[in-house]
Every structure is written in structure tokens, then in C-alpha cells.
Amino acid sequence: xxxxxxxxxxxxxxxxxxxxxxxxxxxxxxxxxxxxxxxxxxxxxxxxxxxxxxxxxxxxxxxxxxxxxxxxxxxxxxxxxxxxxxxxxxxxxxxxxxxxxxxxxxxxxxxxxxxxxxxxxxxxxxxxxxxxxxxxxxxxxxxxxxxxxxxxxxxxxxxxxxxxxxxxxxxxxxxxxxxxxxxxxxxxxxxxxxxxxxxxxxxxxxxxxxxxxxxxxxxxxxxxxxxxxxxxxxxxxxxxxxxxxxxxxxxxxxxxxxxxxxxxxxxxxxxxxxxxxxxxxxxxxxxxxxxxxxxxxxxxxxxxxxxxxxxxxxxxxxxxxxxxxxxxxxxxxxxxxxxxxxxxxxxxxxxxxxxxxxxxxxxxxxxxxxxxxxxxxxxxxxxxxxxxxxxxxxxxxxxxxxxxxxxxxxxxxxxxxxxxxxxxxxxxxxxxxxxxxxxxxxxxxxxxxxxxxxxxxxxxxxxxxxxxxxxxxxxxxxxxxxxxxxxxxxxxxxxxxxxxxxxxxxxx
Length: 508
What we know:
It is a multi-pass membrane protein. The chain is an all-alpha fold. It has helices spanning 9-43, 48-76, 78-98, 102-125, 127-130, 134-165, 170-173, 175-189, 203-226, 231-253, 267-296, 302-307, 310-330, 332-351, 359-385, 393-427, 439-448, 452-487, and strands at residues 193-194, 506-507. It folds into three domains: 8-196, Up-down Bundle (Growth Hormone, Chain: A); 202-257; 261-497, MFS general substrate transporter like domains (Growth Hormone, Chain: A, Up-down Bundle), CATH 1.20.1250.20.
């Protein structure tokens, strides 16, 4: 006889803590690499292409394998695959730390992407079995989302500290003890769960989705790096899009689809996923520009840049606390309709930042940005999760995360182009290499030449690009606020009755 009862309350929250630790490592890994790249370039004799592949290898593996990983977890056991992914993440982290060549590091980074592709959807996919009651599930999702988001600004802080005291491999080695804690806790506290329907894995769907996501992601990565005139990158992106079109057509025909396209028929999943993608643009606006501002304008080092992002974490914690109370009383719609305008106002203030604004002004608006993120991110993802049955929660979570990943890659390319175009146009007569390559290069040239006028031109041009990029993000948040007001139902998880934990769920 199957055990259909969720674990007792204390055990469930301890299990959630284990999942939060696992997700923290992914957030850290995304941004810690940026801090370590200059040192790695020297020690590994890595050229520009290799440095790009240190990041690209991870992103491509993540994009290609997220959907299959979710389906495998649903079919054979989410806990089983989550444990395997955690172990692989730890092994790959150690391999990154011990790499002695650029090729070895690229291969290890690809393994990290494979592990993260399973960790992200399956750690979310086990939440319905751990927390069958909607109110508790929403609170658990808030913890899950916050742990991932907090890892992003912590990356530069942790990485900067480690690089000041140890060799560059330590920024990856720090993952190993965190993974060990996650492994022990997940093994002991998280129940196994899987679909009761022993469906066959859709192998043609796996191949089409993996190839399509790889092509689309790589194409837009190259467009973001090399500019929109790169014909080869457009061709790769077009092939990827065509393969994804073929994947969708196949999903409508096959009896055992890899993803349930019917999810898009419900407003919850459709708009919750869309809101999750749009809120990422606020993150892009922040992480694309503000660390560069700290270094190029305020003269901070990598560690100093990370420390200056701490108000974001404080704001995020405040935002999630407000969201919990507001959602319980007024519902999810109130949180989203409040949160997106907060994000838009914060970003508008950010777009008004100038060379002379100073850190106090920036700290104020990134704190407000953190509040908005704390309000919107858990509410948007909770909205999408409500439409996922426990039967296919791994696949549904993977679909949402894959769409966020694709949207993030495309958004990065677009917003990066806005920034670069406005920066170059603001340089005037200084629009030539190497000054036009990036603001950091331009500042380095100006300081080497002791040319105060050139330094002012470079910094002002960058602030123009930063402003243009953040205005785009603010505009998208305004659009999201209007959509949330129009399409979101009240949605008060705290008032809902607990679901039957055993319905369409095999827990053992």
C-alpha cells in the first residue's frame, strides 16, 4: 500500500531548507564566475573565445536538458534524479576548481549545466508533494525563489572575498560543502514522488526540444556578443526556432508528449510564467549595469561591487514578508498589481542615475527594486504552480523554467544591444577601439592616459546606455502591471482548503 501522507510539518520545512541550500549554490554559481574571469584568463591562458565558452557551456547544457530532466523525474522519481543532480553538481564543481586548462574548465562547466538542468525543475517539482495545502505551498515557494535570487548578489561578494584570500578554484570549491549538506538533507527528509501514470519518455520530443533550445540559446548568445549583424548567429537561432516549432507540432500528435501544452490553456500557468519572465528583466537591468557602474564610475573593485548590492537582499527579504501578509488578506492579484509598479518606480529612479548621483541614491533605488522583486517573483511563480498537478509537476516546472531561461537569453541579447548602442553613440569622437569595446576598457584607457576629459566622456556615455536599458525594463514592468490588473484573479491561497495529497500522486 502506498504512503499518500505528506511528511510531518517540521520535517517538511527542514526538507525545504535543504532544497533552498541546493538552489543557493545555483544562484551563486551564475554570478561568481564574472568575478573570477580575469584571474582565470591569466592562469588558464584563456583567450576571449574560451572566456565566453566558460559561461556558454553552462547555459547551453541548462537550456537543452531542463525539459527532459523534468520528465525523467516525473517518470522514475523526482527525489532520485534530484539526488543524482546534486551529486553531479558537487563533482562538476570540484572538477572546475581543479581544472588546469581552458578545455577542462569548459567541460566541467557543461557538467554543471547538466546538473543544474535537473536541480532547478525537480527541486520545485517536489513542492506539491511536500506541501499539498495551497497556503503552505505558496510560502514554501517564496523560500525557494528567495534562496535562488539571494545567491545572485551574494556571488560577487563571496567570489571577491575568496579571490582575495585563495586561488580562483575556490569560487567553485565552495559549492561542495553546500552540496553535501543538500545531499544528506534531501536523502533523509524529502519523500520520493513520481507520476502514477507510467508513461513512456517521448524520445523524439527530447531530441527536438534539446536541439531547438540549444540552437535558439546559442544563436542569441552570439547575437548578444557579436551584434545583430551576425548572419551565422541568426541562422543558428532560426534553425533552433524551427526545431522548436517542429517540437510543438510533434507534441500535439504524440500520445505521450514531453510537455502538456494544455497548461497554456489556463491563465494561471500562462500569465504566471509570462510575469516570471518579465520580472527577470528587472534583474537584467540591475546585474547588467549596476556592477559596471560601481567599478567604472565609483571605482569599486569586485568585492566592493558585491557589497554594494547588499541593499537588494534586504529589500527582497522585506518584499517577501509583505507579500506573505498581503497575499493572505487580499490575494495574489493585489501583490502583483502592487509589486510591478514598485519595480517600475525603482527602475525609473535607476534610469535617472547620473555620474554624480553617488552610492546613497543608488542604494535607495536598488533597495526598492529588491522590495518589488520580493513581492512579484514568488507571487508570479505561485500563480503558475497552481495549475500544475502533482502528477506532472516536474515536467510543468521544467517547462516554466525553460521558458524563463529562453526569455532570459533573448532579453540579455536585446538589452545588451540597447546598452552598447547608446554607449557608443554617446562617445562622439571617442567611438573607436578599444574605448568603444566596453566602459571598463574605456575607463582603463582614460586612466592610463591620465585624460580626465576622456574619462568623463566614457562615464557619461555609459550612464546614457544604462539609462536607456533600464527605461526599457521599467516600461516592461508597467506593461506587466496592466496585464496583472486585467487577467489575474484574486487568488488567496491562505483561504483555500488543503488538497488531497494523494490525488494523482505516488509518494513512497
